[in-house]
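Recap quiz, item 2
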Amino acid sequence: MKKFNVAKKIAKSVSDMSGYVPGEQPSDGGWVKLNTNEFPYPPSPRVKRAIVETVGKDGFGLRLYPDPASSTLRAQIAKYFGVPVEFAFAANGSDDALNLAMRAFADGRMSAATIDPSYSLYPVIAKMQGAKLQQIPFGKNMEIPYAKIFKSKANIFFFTNPNAPTGVGYGADVVEKIAKKFKGIVLVDEAYAPFSGFSATSLVQKCPNLLVIGTASKGWGLAGMRIGWAVANPAIIEVLDRVRDSYNLDRLSQVAGVAALADKAYYEKLCAKIVAERGETEKFFDKLGWGYFKSSSNFILFTPKNSAGFSGARIAADLFNYLRGKKILLRYFPKNKIINMSIRLSIGSPEQMKLFRAAALKWSKIK
Amino acid sequence: MKKFNVAKKIAKSVSDMSGYVPGEQPSDGGWVKLNTNEFPYPPSPRVKRAIVETVGKDGFGLRLYPDPASSTLRAQIAKYFGVPVEFAFAANGSDDALNLAMRAFADGRMSAATIDPSYSLYPVIAKMQGAKLQQIPFGKNMEIPYAKIFKSKANIFFFTNPNAPTGVGYGADVVEKIAKKFKGIVLVDEAYAPFSGFSATSLVQKCPNLLVIGTASKGWGLAGMRIGWAVANPAIIEVLDRVRDSYNLDRLSQVAGVAALADKAYYEKLCAKIVAERGETEKFFDKLGWGYFKSSSNFILFTPKNSAGFSGARIAADLFNYLRGKKILLRYFPKNKIINMSIRLSIGSPEQMKLFRAAALKWSKIK
């Protein structure tokens, strides 16, 4: 092989970046998987029907390119959120939509901003785009640092609502205040909105700078199908259309998304079940005297205490590893000093949560 | 709605670009669709089986994130092309891989190059990346302009082989010569390789600057599933991994890709059938005295002549529209002055080609 130094050929913004590291996806079975906030129930039965029908007798239809605009899915997204169809955009998961938004509205001259902590993908996609990302710390008790956001002069502001990894949700008043006073694009990343009772999509028709991004991964049980969307003023959608891949969603994801969004009743019932289970889990932490953020999501960021009543990074790591040893998988962020005394727990089925509670209770007594 | 000027918020490289315009995908039935080089036969029966098995009884598995690295698919790609697994990368269609390669290896300072004409996506993704794209014209009879390529000082060279839209294929000697003498990354975009008998993947272990990109859209009957790949030296693959979406392929596309690549015998037989049909079509053009490029692809770029023996843009447009009126859809590029006297014809099934030949013959007599 001739000598060739790839490192010298890498684009500047990519040369010193690392890719995003997603949560662990174990390939073996038997895990109580509470680490990546997946839906614990199967998707609507309409999803399977739509996929099987599209595959057909022998997959003949799969040989044709999908609808490049995902028109039927856009129409269903628009219908679901009660907006005109020109306000809707479909993406290969919400990560795709977030990446496209960064590409469309930030660069070496136009910066992005977010609140810290937020979804840890933002620094990765900002770096890739060669854009500066201002990470403005939350106020006390996760209060919104309005003044600093408005002073930031960023071109686009990424607002995770409900927040990840804290799970704290903010209402229409907060989003509207930011959208009114912030001079750039306000991107609301609401992967967890199905568990909060509020979606900022209700504001896009009066806030022309609001770009709301959602996903079927958390609230529709379709993380495996990569279905995301954006809802915004058509002038924003038009720019996302310029930068997207021309066939960004395959045929089966398009029909799965349509089928899921059409079955509102099925999901409302199951989301309510998850919210109830979240309440039970919070009561459990109250009983143990463990701290947590009151969640509007399908997960809880909690701070375990050992039997002596202490908490901290080592104690959190100990519980995380103890549970892992019992094949109960949670998410722990050891490198983030703001939250490394805490662990993130996805809300699973009642059976899964029972197993978690029993193991956590046992740990709290012996450690 | 408050006033908000989105145009002022758009990133510089995106502000004056237009998205790629893919070929027409009619949503109504009854078309003899010979416009986007799709496979005219169903995918391997293993594909349907793999999809149905993964969906399962009720789609329960779809709620879990896919394997972020597409490990099983990468292993199958590596096995198919006879390279170690570290040489393989999976993408959401080859357009995704091309876009990532542009993002990884070109920017405002490091330019890209290609030969003109080539796949019309390259100017779009170069512009989006703020990178200059040098479009070096082909020599007479579509000869490779070696000297100009080597003098270009581009950081990455995009080589469509077999070429689109001409269909002309180049062999191992050509690719190896370019890879040896060009100082940057040599990207071989071989969507049509299954119809040419040569894949540059056979050279990646001796050419460390070679990046070969392929797709299941053309040769595996899976355009609807968005499955693409890259095969290259692991140092190149590592950079693509940095910039890709962390879950770029959904669960069903991953298993469909594995199933298709595993059924070599099925596809070899059908690709041979398409190649034979291509020969028949070339004979038909010979009889009519119409010009065409000898194709190594599953399409032919031909130049129609009217009954008086004339050719040209107006005559090509006339035949294109005449066929369209009979619901026979080909691809015509009116804006490209190098090829606007020609029309691109996908090689379909024998039945489809019979319909095309009958209509074209009739046109040649009455026009």
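Chain B touches chain A through 98 residues (CB under 8 Å).
The first helix of chain B runs from residue 12 to 15.
End of item.
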